Amino acid sequence: SENTSYESIGPMGNNQEENKMSEKVQRRLAQNREAARKSRLRKKAYVQQLETCRLKLTQLEQELERYRQQGVYAGGALNTGHIGFSIPLNSGIAAFEMEYGHWVEEQQRQNCELRKVLQAHISDIELRLLVETGLNHYSNLFRIKADAARADIFYLMSGTWRTPVERFFLWLGGLRPSELLNIIRPQLEPLTDQQVQAVGKLQQSSQQAEDALTQGMDRLKEILAQSITNHYNDAGNYSSQMASAMEKLRALESFVSQADHLRQQTLQQMSRILTIRQAARGLLALGEYLQRLRAINSLWAPRPHEPA
Fold first, then answer.
1. pTM of this prediction?
2. Quick one: what percent of the chain has pLDDT higher than 90?
3. Burial degree of 162 (CB within 10 A; 0-12, 13-18, 19+)
4. Please, are residues 193 and 282 in contact by the beta-carbon 8 Å criterion?
5. CA-based angle 34:36:41, to the nearest 5?
6. How many H helices and E strands in the chain?
7. What is the pLDDT of residues 34-73, one digit of tens each?
8. Is residue 172 within 8 Å of residue 213, measured between CB atoms?
């Protein structure tokens, strides 16, 4: 009977632990569902807000078109928030700015949650849910950027949707993938020999892809300049040059799309190389880096200017 009683205790203990773990996972899933519900409500509010401002945007576009027809250049004159740039007249860009603002808010929330759970003792299953949520959050950023690129590629590449300090580090509408690795790698130690080798290969391949895209952009600029200057002596007749230039400018969207795809692939491959806790620390390091850039900008912008 003693043996029987001892044998029965083990499975019961295991079942209790499994039930406790299952309850934690269920709570985490419930929290994720609640976050998703709030996100849907915010998105509904965005749509309503967009509908409210749509008529104002249309009216503003009509007024600017009237000014252009009268020969008045209005660029930069109606700035309401972007230093040196006019307000976005494209409804797609207006939607992007709202979505990006809420993306930043959600990233700050995720940073706080990751920081909290990394200091606590939680299961790898729960931590994996948070890492997957973080990676999906960046995937969502690349999705809304693709929509913005279709609306206005020059707006996206100019980086006016980011702070001036963040723009200082921009490469094709975002951070360089190799720079992403430099940011998170110090937070991943200790790495195994196999991980060090894999990260090194990823860094090298990312750098090669960046160089190829940069060279492609430089070549596009050369071709574009040549197409504009061809037949320059044909005074007053620019239609053929402009048509050729417009055709070549469409390649810009492809370059930005490839750059974001490279950024996304770098994050995903890095997460596969790392343990789940290392991946969580890496996501937190990246999120805090971007948050600190914005913090530096908030300190830099209102600084007192020294007299010349």
1. 0.71
2. 54
3. buried
4. no
5. 95
6. 10, 0
7. 877 777 777 676 666 666 666 666 666 665 566 555 543 3
8. yes
